[in-house]
Each structure stands twice: as C-alpha cells, then as structure tokens.
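Re: the multi-chain job from yesterday

Posting the exact lines I submitted so nobody has to dig through the queue logs.
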Amino acid sequence: MAGGKGTRMRSALPKVLHPIWGRPLLGWVISAVRDAGAERVVVVVPPDAAEAVTAVAGDAQTVIQHDQLGTGDAVRCAMPALEGFSGDVLIVSGDTPLLTAELLSGLVAAHGAEGAAGTAATFRIATPGGYGRVIRDAAGIRIVEAKDATAAELAIDEVNAGLYVFDADALRPALAGLTNDNAQGEYYLPDVVPAIAAAGGRVSASLVADASLLLGVNTRVELAEAAQIIRGRILETHLLAGAGIVDPATTYIDAEVELAPDCVVHPFTILRGTTRLAAGAEAGPHSVLTDATLESGAQAGPFAHLRAGSHLHAGARVGAFAETKNAEIGPRSKVPHLSYIGDATIGEDTNIGAGNITANYDGVSKHRTTIGDRVRTGSDCVFVAPVEIGDDATTGAGSIITGDVPAEALAIARARQVNKEHYAKRKRDA
Ligand code: UD1
Ligand code: CA
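And the result, structure tokens for all chains:
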C-alpha cells in the first residue's frame, strides 16, 4: 500500500519516494517483500504520483487508487491484479522500510502453521497513540482504530502493525462487504477481520518482539530514524563480509554499493550510487565517491571527489582536492593534487601534475581528452578538449594545450618569460 498522501512529510515529493541511502522508501519495502519470496508484487499507487511511483516499483505490478478512501479500499483496488490467485496474500505498508525478509517470511510461516484465514502482526508499545488496538478474545482478535476506541480499548498496549497475511479466498468476499461507517469515514482494512470471522474463518495475531522492525515513516523525523537504522545494517553487512571500514560512525554507504573483502574505507567518506571497491582499493578519508569503480590497489583520497563514471584501474590514484567525472584513470596512473579530470581517458603509468584541468565543456557539448601511457604533465596545465596527448609525451608547466601532442614530444604552450632588468631602480629614479 503506497496510495496515501504522506502529508506529514511536508514535502512536494511523495513520501514513498524519499530516498534512504540511494533507494526510495518504497524500494526498501519491495526488496524485503521480494527477498521473502513473494511470487507476485502489486503496488497500490496514488494518482498524482503514479508515474514516479511506478518507476520505483520496478517489475512489480501497479494499480492506481484514485481516491484515498482508506486501507481497505487500497487493498480492494489491488485485488483485480490478483484475479485467479488463491494463496497467501501478504499486505505491507509502503512506508515501513525497516521490514526484513526474515520477519515477513516468519509471518507467512506462522500464518501457515496456525492454519488461520488471516494473521495480523502486532507489537507492544508504551504509548500506543494513533495505532489500532488489538483485542484478543476466545474467537480470535478484533482491531479497533484509536479514533473509534473506547477508553478501555485505548488502554490496550498491543497494537496493529499494519502488516498482514490473508488467505486470498477469504479476503476477497470480506473486502467486498466493507463499509465506511466509522469515525474517519474510511474503508478500514482491519474490518475484514470480523467479516472473515462471520464467514467462519479465524484471524490470529502474531506478536513481533522487535517492534523497531515495524517503524512506519510518517514524518521526516521518522525518516531520519529509519535511515540511521538502515545505515547501521549496511555497514554491518559489509564489515561481516570482510570490507575494512575504519570508522563506521563517519562512513555513509548507499544500498547498491559493492565492497570486496579487504578494501578499506577511511573515515568521513561517502560512497554513493553504484560505487564498487575491489580488494585492496582504498577510499577516503574525507572523500565522496558516486558511481565510481576502484580496481585492486586503486586509491581515492584524502579529499577526493569522484563523480559518476570515474574508473580507477589497478593501482591508480586520485588525491587531494581532485575531482574526476566520466574518466578512465589507467593502471598506476596518478592525479595526485588539485585537478579536475572529466570526460577523459588516461593510459598507464601517467602522472598528472598538480592543478591540471581538462576543459571538457565549450558551453554546448562535452569533449574528450585522451592522454596516453607514461605521460608527464607539468603543473597547472589546461587541456582544451577534444585533444589527444601521445604516449611518453611531456607538457610544460602552465601550458594551455589546445592541439594534439605527438608521442614522445614536449609541448610548451605559454608566454615566454621576459625579465626587465633594473626595473626597481628605474622606478626609484623616475
Ligand atoms: C493503519 C491501521 C492501524 C495500524 C497502523 C499501523 C487502518 C485503518 N489502520 O493506520 O490499525 O495500527 O496502520 O501503522 O488500516 N494507504 C493507501 N490508501 C489509502 C490509505 C492508506 O494506500 O487510502 C496506505 C498508506 O500509503 C500507508 C498505509 O496504507 O502506506 C497505511 O496508511 P496510514 O494512513 O498510514 O494508516 P494508519 O492511520 O497509520
Ligand atoms: Ca501510518
């Protein structure tokens, strides 16, 4: 269910699209559902953000809920997509990114073991606030929304997590009979419980001990809380898989980043997007890498900014205050200091002097700079692309290189120095 408005986020972006470590909220939920082994995934999307939410849903099926008439209506909208399916229907909220595959498959297993027509996940909470209260009796359970509850019911500390498994054939007729005769004038999904009971089915409650897994994101405060928990999980997964992370407290790693065993991530480093570090590669300290690839022994940092498409081959190095983008840095080549290398290909064993710039953009299009093997560029060179520097070439410090440089040549492209002798004395005497 991702059809709600998410007004409490106070954001123009639909709630389920807010990113957590490079993956939208909804993406976390879908990946947990998939990892739990769901055969088919149907996502209920809001009409005003249908396209964007559909894009995030990937290969899941989507259905638009045209009016936000409540959670019961949301599920009712999804059922035609499951026509002919009779089996377990797992229902999750699109705003609960901390759900794990283990929790979900455990719930499905508990449902099967009980032989119930429905199973609702519940948890205990000291201040149950707006959660639906769970009332257990001999016949099974009832769920009462806070706004419809009596004072005695409000005192109950076992609440509805909004996470359920239903037998599809029991769910369908129960949904068809829902009414919106309640305090909020909504079609409540939990109202299928008495309907299933009336039809002779039983709905049981499965108490989840670790309530933190069920955290729902309604505000940016909760989004930040969820992100911190997921950050810890990502770091722990990489550490257990053998990646070296010197200071997890100052390291931020996106969901899709791949770290090989024995890479090293130094403090204050952010690895974003699809960044990949091979064994022996090192990133940081104080570096930001986005969609970058570091092969074995490659190093980025300290203070390096690697943007999308930066590819450091084995043993290559990008150092302090250097920015790269869409750049191949060949084996053992170095961009050690104060440079911008964009839309460039650099060969092997080349050294880029301090303060070099590839001028890749003429205001209209981007152009490529190609630098060969074993090239030495002087400090403060500008390469006005498109331009090609041959193998074993050298460029003089301060050169503005506008034309190709042949292999083995030295290119100097700067004004000659002129010394005006006795200048100071002439000024004094004037
Ligand atoms: C719901 C439950 C409540 C439970 C709580 C747990 C109902 C009536 N109440 O309340 O018992 O304790 O979750 O968090 O179900 N959505 C739609 N379409 C709609 C309305 C909601 O898709 O018309 C989606 C939302 O996007 C969200 C989910 O359903 O992902 C839950 O909706 P929300 O409004 O947050 O329900 P709660 O009031 O929190
Ligand atoms: Ca909610």
